[in-house]
């Protein structure tokens, strides 16, 4: 009886959610350009204002090297060493410009798909991001917002693929469409999804990861596609 119920529940889950495609969107510089700055005071008293993601990554990389930190996201370790890192601009959506080449794709929800925003921001940004989606006319009830708080996005995506294993031993996820501006995150996802021995056992034979890199150009943005 228990087995029957288990099977029935499984069947119902699959009926309700025949999800085969995940669409994963980064937020900053992918869905919107914002005027968020990070202000830092180092333990030696030196101050810096980091005006965009590139400046942010360069500063954190240099500071981590200086302090001998090797974690994927050194922010927390640097804070523990006495760096004052003010991320408060990232708890709101500050002066956003919508990146329509991406949002026009996002607002069309394909069948059998699930749509995520996966941001490296902290959890307190989830509410403001949901409000922003409503502001630009995207039905936020169809989007799940996840804040990875600096954790490796590749690890999170690998967990998502492993979440639901079908009777044939393969994941229900056959296709992932990933929209992202950061090459560092793209490299991490490629590495953890495409070159992962463990994952190859659960990947369906037709599995595809399609990466759309969001690139700033003179008069707007363009998408550069790659896949594995
Ligand atoms: Mg970004």
From N to C, what is the helix and strand string? HEEEEHHEEHEHEHEHHEE
Overall average pLDDT: 92
- What share of the residues does DSSP label as strand, in percent? 15-25%
Q: What structural class do you assign from the helix and strand content?
A: alpha/beta
Instruction: Give helix % range.
Output: 25-40%
Query: Compounds present?
Result: magnesium ion
Runs with pLDDT <50, length 5+?
Answer: none
How many β strands by DSSP?
A: 11
Which CATH C-level class of the largest domain is it? Alpha Beta
Mind describing the biggest β-sheet?
6 strands, mixed
Provide a count of the helices: 8
**At the third CATH level, what is the topology name of the largest domain?**
Rossmann fold
Order of strands across the biggest sheet?
Answer: 8-7-1-9-10-11
User: How many domains make up the 3D coordinates?
Assistant: 2
CATH architecture verdict of the largest domain: 3-Layer(aba) Sandwich
Specify Rg, calculated over alpha carbons.
19 Å
Looking at the structure, what is the overall shape? globular
First-last Cα distance: 43 Å
Overall description:
By secondary structure, the protein is an alpha/beta fold. The chain has two domains: 18-33 and 93-227, Rossmann fold, CATH 3.40.50; 38-91, no CATH class. Helix content is 35%, strand content 25%. The strands form three sheets. The chain has a six-stranded mixed β-sheet, sandwiched between helices. A three-stranded antiparallel β-sheet has the order 4-3-5. Helix 6 packs parallel to helix 7. The longest helix is centred in the first third of the chain and has 15 residues, at 2-16. The mean pLDDT is 92. The structure holds magnesium ion. Residues 26, 28-30, 53, 181-182 line the site of magnesium ion.
């Amino acid at each position: 009886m228990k087995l029957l119920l288990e099977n029935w529940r499984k069947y119902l889950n699959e009926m309700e959610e025949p999800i085969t495609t995940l669409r994963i969107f980064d937020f900053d510089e992918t869905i919107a350009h914002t005027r968020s700055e990070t202000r830092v005071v180092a333990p030696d008293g030196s101050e810096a204002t980091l005006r965009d993601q590139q400046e942010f990554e360069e500063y954190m990389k240099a500071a981590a090297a200086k302090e001998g930190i090797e974690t994927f996201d050194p922010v927390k370790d640097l804070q523990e060493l006495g760096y004052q890192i003010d991320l408060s601009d990232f708890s709101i959506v500050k002066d956003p410009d919508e990146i329509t080449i991406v949002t026009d794709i996002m607002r069309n929800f394909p069948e059998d798909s699930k749509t995520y925003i996966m941001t490296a921001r902290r959890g307190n940004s989830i509410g403001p991001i949901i409000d922003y989606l409503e502001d630009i006319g995207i039905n936020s009830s169809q989007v799940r917002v996840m804040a990875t708080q600096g954790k490796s996005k590749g690890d999170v995506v690998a967990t998502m693929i492993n979440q639901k294993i079908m009777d044939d031993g393969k994941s229900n996820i056959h296709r992932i469409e990933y929209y992202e501006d950061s090459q560092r995150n793209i490299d991490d996802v490629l590495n953890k999804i495409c070159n992962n021995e463990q994952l190859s056992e659960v990947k369906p034979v037709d599995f595809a990861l399609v990466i759309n890199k969001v690139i700033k150009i003179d008069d707007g943005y363009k998408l550069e596609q790659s896949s594995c």
